[in-house]
Design goal:
The complex is a heterodimer of chains A (292) and B (303).
Chain A: H1 2-34, H2 51-57, H3 60-91, H4 98-106, H5 113-123, H6 130-137, H7 152-161, H8 165-175, H9 180-188, H10 193-204, H11 206-220, H12 225-231, H13 242-252, H14 256-281, H15 288-291
Chain B: H1 2-9, H2 19-22, H3 28-59, H4 63-66, H5 81-89, H6 92-123, H7 129-138, H8 144-157, H9 165-168, H10 178-189, H11 193-201, H12 206-217, H13 219-235, H14 238-243, H15 252-262, H16 267-302
Helix pairs in contact in B: 3-16, 5-16, 6-10, 6-13, 10-13, 11-12, 13-16, 15-16
Classes of the chains: A mainly alpha (292), B mainly alpha (303).
Amino acid sequence: MKVSQQRWGMFFAAAAVIGFFVFTLLPMVASAVIGLTNWTIGTTPRFIGLDNFRAIAVDPLFWKSFRVTTTYAVFAVPGGLLVAFVTASLLNRVNRTRGFFRTVYYLPVLVPPVASAVIWLWIFNPDSGLLNAVLSALHLPTLLWVYGESTAVPSIALMTIWGFGNMTLIFLAALQGVSRDLYEAAECDGANPLRRMWHVTVPSISPVILFNLVTGMIAAFQIFDAAYVMTQGGPNNATLFYVYYLYRKAFTEAQLGYASALAWILFVVIVLITIVILRTSRGWVFYEGERR
Amino acid sequence: MSGTVKLRRNPATPPDERPALRRRGRSISEYAGRLVVGVLLVLGAVFALMPFAWLIRSSLMTQDQMFMVPLQWLPRPFVWSNFSGAMTSAPFLLYLGNTLQILFLVVPGMLISCSAAAFAFSRLQWRGRNALFVLLMTGMMLPYAVTLIPTFIGWQALGFVNTYIPLTLPAWFAAGGAFNIFMLRQFFLTIPRELDDAVYIDGGSPWTVYWRVILPLNKGPLILVAVFGTTWVWNDLLNPLIYLADPNKFTLSLGLAAFRGLYNSQWGYLMAASVLVISPLIVLFIFAQRYIVQGIAFTGVKG
């Protein structure tokens, strides 16, 4: 049986393994090679070593896009985590209405990013949009939102946070797995609900917080649709997100070599961020097995 | 004692609702707590639903009414002209047909290739299995930007730019499906091995196990993969953007993005078009909700 399973195993995995080599590994290697050339569409590529990386190091738009994307991630990811964690904790305390609110919170997740961008563009409209209408109804000063240089990135982060429902579902499932005994012990020791939250709930679901943090960060650094549909990187490059800049370099300016180098830098940045998060997580993430 | 037994059996009950506490009667602080929870839940719902309300309101308004000062909260009268206007300004039905065409080419490929790989990685013993699985999973971390340019160059060299092949063929090789493989594998692992053994004792092959045991017992997870595949195709902007040049081949997402570029101040049209793009997904969700909630809970916690 073992011998035949060897053949069957390779047969069943074949498509996915071929796909991995053809559509992931090969392009990955090719991208590294192209990144070392001066390839522009329509010319013959020439090997130029690390010149692209040297040019990127002094490219103000690269640094701008890097700053903009980091700022976006710093707003959107912790903001989304917080909203999702709070809503999941609340949902975990109700019974009859849980299904209803869970559905309501999930609805924004269903909206395609392009549609979401179009809708929020209109919500952000400084003259007749929803948000400024609410602000003026409350006699507060209105904002330029996505049309203003300083408010554009937080506005797009707000749009992203609107899709918090996905993380809420993950948190809710984790909360339902937290051991009753821990809460009882904490209650016996006289811990109030806030302390129970901080000392029992948060450590118990910390692996899931870590999972959401890492996947959220990886996604945030690759935001593209919002810039393409809403702002085209404006105003004054305030929303020049990294992948949007890369897209422009590759497909509008035809600089395939330069754009490939940009892609590899993004890859390294994402790996570094993941490593840093995983390293620091050792201090605040607790796994069930270790606790005993 | 009976209280503790009940607790164990019902781990989803929040601590405050345990029978032992309930017997004490509800104090004022408990009511206040419930009120705060209720208010916050409603606030969350307002945040989630307001954009939908604004979308529907604006799609049913005339352009003039939208820009009136002071602001008009409700359409008066209700007009449907934005929908007909959007449909005649851009061929959204054609975009819908194109998107469905891509869906029918992508979803079966994704289901077959991902479930077969998940089967190989969960139920069969073979050399190289674990190493290949880890390799496939690390591929998930790779930003799509890294593979984007060489993949484009490759398809261009083969002459397939401006066709649906770059958008559909990779799905048959589980490209971008690492997460689906991971999720299906998690589900497959929960099925008792005795079922496989029974098939082998009866002289069946791994194919029989895959086709007659594993797939029929995992309809829910497979539906989930189909739903994920559908939303992925529906939402994708970047791939159609770089591969499709002919507007008659546009998908709904790309069509809407292009429409926004052309009619950037026709907010009524834009809102009506957005409603058209969103509503099929909402309908899909109503049918698939059960599987989505289960699946996300499962992978999020076990992962």
